[in-house]
Structure formats: C-alpha cells, structure tokens
Amino acid sequence: MFGIGIPELVILLVIILVIFGAGKLPEIGSGLGKAIKGFKKGVSEPDEIDVTPKQKDEKP
C-alpha cells in the first residue's frame, strides 16, 4: 500500500495523536467518514435536470 508499512503507520498515528489530541480524533474520523460518504453519493447519483416549464411574463 504505497510503500507504507506498519512502523510508518504507527509513527503517523502517534504524530496525529500529538497534534490533535485524543479528544478530537473521534470528531475528525466522523467528519472524514461523512465527507467520503457524501463524495461517493455525489459521484454515483445522476445529474439532476430541471424540467419545470418556464412561465412567460404576460403584459396586459
């Protein structure tokens, strides 16, 4: 996986823990999960097309 082994992952997780703290990690994970879910949903859904008829401005 991109040349990243177990020791590199452990070091990366420790650095993230030091930077953000243990209290923020669940919030960061939740936000990242929601972002990935929204991206997948946006990519998989077809484009929406507005089919409502336009109304003409009637002048008396």
Topology at a glance:
Layout (H helix, E strand, L loop, with lengths): L5 H15 L4 H20 L16
Can you walk me through this structure?
This is Twin-arginine translocation protein TatA. It comes from hydrothermal vent metagenome. The chain crosses the membrane at residues 6-25. It is found in: Cell membrane. The chain has helices spanning 6-20, 25-44. It is mostly helical. The longest helix has 20 residues, at 25-44.
Name the descriptors.
60 residues, mainly alpha, 2 helices
Summarize the structure.
This protein has helices at residues 6-20, 25-44. It is mainly alpha-helical. InterPro entries: TatA/B/E, TatA/E.
Overall average pLDDT: 83
**Tally the helices: what do you get?**
2
How would you spell out the order of helices and strands? HH
Number of β-strand runs: 0
Question: What portion of residues is helical?
Answer: 55-70%
Q: Roughly how many Å is the radius of gyration?
A: 23 Å
Which structural class matches the secondary elements?
mainly alpha
Query: Strand share of the residues?
Result: under 5%
User: Which stretches are poorly predicted, pLDDT < 50 over at least 5 residues?
Assistant: none
Oligomer: single chain
Q: What is the overall silhouette?
A: elongated
Tell me the span between the first and last alpha carbons: 71 Å
Q: Could you describe the largest sheet, including whether it forms a barrel?
A: none
Subcellular location: Cell membrane
Membrane topology: Single-pass membrane protein
InterPro entries: TatA/B/E, TatA/E
Main location: membrane
